[in-house]
Specification:
2 copies of one chain form a homodimer. By secondary structure, chain A is α/β, with parallel strands linked by helices. Chain A is about 45% helix and about 10% strand. The N and C termini of chain A lie far apart (about 45 Å).
Chain lengths: ~300, ~300
């Protein structure tokens, strides 16, 4: 394996960056780089590009590698990146993870292979172990991606235990998008003191996660509300932490009233004055005009803005 | 669009061909071609390569295209092939479908994009329509793949209606792996007289499907029991059809006692005397020795054999 580096682990607020598409639905590197740069100067400490909210699985490996390349050429620091690299196909996961490590990414966020359902922990263990062994690089920081409502393939505590025991230092943490605080708390209690960093999958759990030893959150609405979410991260020990948390939870609830991914894109399109941002790839569908109008009205009524965008 | 051809539609028994892997888990074209040739001379009228039972989603697009190339170079007729070409990523589905049509494949069997759950029929319609438009070839014969227990993304009757209305002749049929005969029957009643060919997803429903106007079955156990299943297809109007059907149903039930994909591979390994066939890619796991021993014992007790294999 390649030599170990002592790069600092990513903490704080990460956005699973929404992916802009051109009118022909090809990924748009220019808009992508611009949005990533805005996120990093507006409160995000890291970028979980190629996540669920990025429509990552609606893109080929080649399309994602081209976007990654554009980001680095656009001056985004690789250390701030935690790209999604988990695919159904072992060969795709290896290719994408290897490339992310080679480019110096701070970590990778890895879905389990999600086509077959009801698979065993033994099978999932073999998947992650194969990727780690084939990449064969001590610089790899692998964050497991637990999102059973979408993947339908959970990452159990037993699986984490086994991976952490075999690959300490490489298996670096988890994003818990179960929406179940009891599960996040169980992960924290069992693994937080073993070099395993727990990120909440929504800012709704950010303060609780930090109070129990978690490291931050990787959240859809980080795409549009990074400053306020980061304020909770930076001030979680302060007297007004609960009040700050209530504010970001309220904003989240407004966005959640409509389908999340097209909602995020509508918000970026509206506040950035750039209609092309509304494009989604099938099987997703953009918001209706009425849905978007209601969303924007409610956000504005709550004092929401995106300073410096567009 | 390219000129129309009058190629006969595939009917009868198709196997979703299991994919052999080498010790390093790379796909093994030589074993694959040998197995495909055995299937075609043993009762299969077509090969649904790259299906669920093929571990297709555990392979990259490139790995699948190499196997397809090996098949054609190995003398397998393209007209007998119905490769799986549906991926989560629109770009992957287009690439694979375009290549299948260019090579002259008899059809393609297309999964819906299966990462996002609870997506709308509008979004799924756009996915299939985009693939059809981008491939832009009248020779395309697209079979929809309805397998909600695995994909968790169903193909509704309303979606079929809309696609068939817009793309008659190209939208050619369905594989119904719902396991719900009422659903298969509803598809038959509504679409069978409109150039839409219904294949049962298991030979358990083969006779019923044929009696209601269906065209055959695409079935996992077609990999190991093609002759007996084909006998039902060829003799479905005969007096002993129910008895023949009972025989293949009984064999299916034995195989279903253990996980299907590793079971099929164990059977091929045992009866073909070729241990390497047992290899599966993660997240699947091969049968235990005890599971395999029980399976083979039960099959032999039922008089099962694989003449001409190995």
């Amino acid at each position: 394996m390649a030599s170990q580096t002592a790069q600092k682990r990513i903490e704080g607020v990460l956005a699973p960056v929404v992916t802009p598409f051109r009118p022909n639905l090809s990924p748009d590197p220019d808009r992508f780089v611009r949005h990533c740069r805005w996120l990093l100067r507006s409160g995000c400490s890291g970028l979980a590009v190629f996540g669920t909210n990025s429509e990552a699985n609606s893109m080929s490996v080649e399309e994602k590698l081209e976007l990654l390349d554009a980001l680095l050429k656009g001056g985004v620091a690789a250390a701030a990146l935690m790209p999604g690299t988990g695919h159904c196909a072992l060969s795709d996961s290896v290719k994408m993870t290897r490339e992310a490590v080679r480019l110096g990414c701070g970590g990778v966020l890895m879905l389990p292979p999600f086509y077959y359902k009801g698979v065993s922990d033994e099978g999932l263990y073999r998947n992650f172990a194969e990727v780690i062994e084939r990449v064969g690089d001590e610089r790899l920081r692998l964050y497991l991606y637990h999102i059973p409502p979408v993947s339908n393939v959970p990452i159990s505590l037993g699986l984490i235990e086994r991976l952490l025991e075999r690959y300490p230092g490489i298996v670096a943490g988890v994003k818990d998008s179960s929406g179940d605080w009891n599960n996040t708390r169980a992960m924290l209690e069992r693994f937080k003191d073993r070099g395993f960093d727990v990120f909440a999958g929504s800012e709704v759990f950010l303060l609780e996660n930090l109070r129990h030893g978690g490291k931050g959150c990787i959240t859809a609405t980080g795409n549009v509300n990074p400053g306020s979410i980061d304020r909770v991260f930076r001030n979680w020990r302060s007297a007004d932490a609960d009040q700050l948390q209530a504010g970001i939870t309220a904003t989240r609830k407004i966005v959640q009233e409509v389908p999340m991914i097209p909602a995020l894109k509508s918000i970026v399109a509206h506040f950035g004055n750039d209609a092309q941002w509304r494009a989604v790839r099938p099987p997703l569908v953009e918001l209706t005009a009425a849905q978007e109008a209601g969303l924007i009205r409610d956000l504005k009524a709550a004092g929401f803005s995106m300073p410096g965008l567009g």
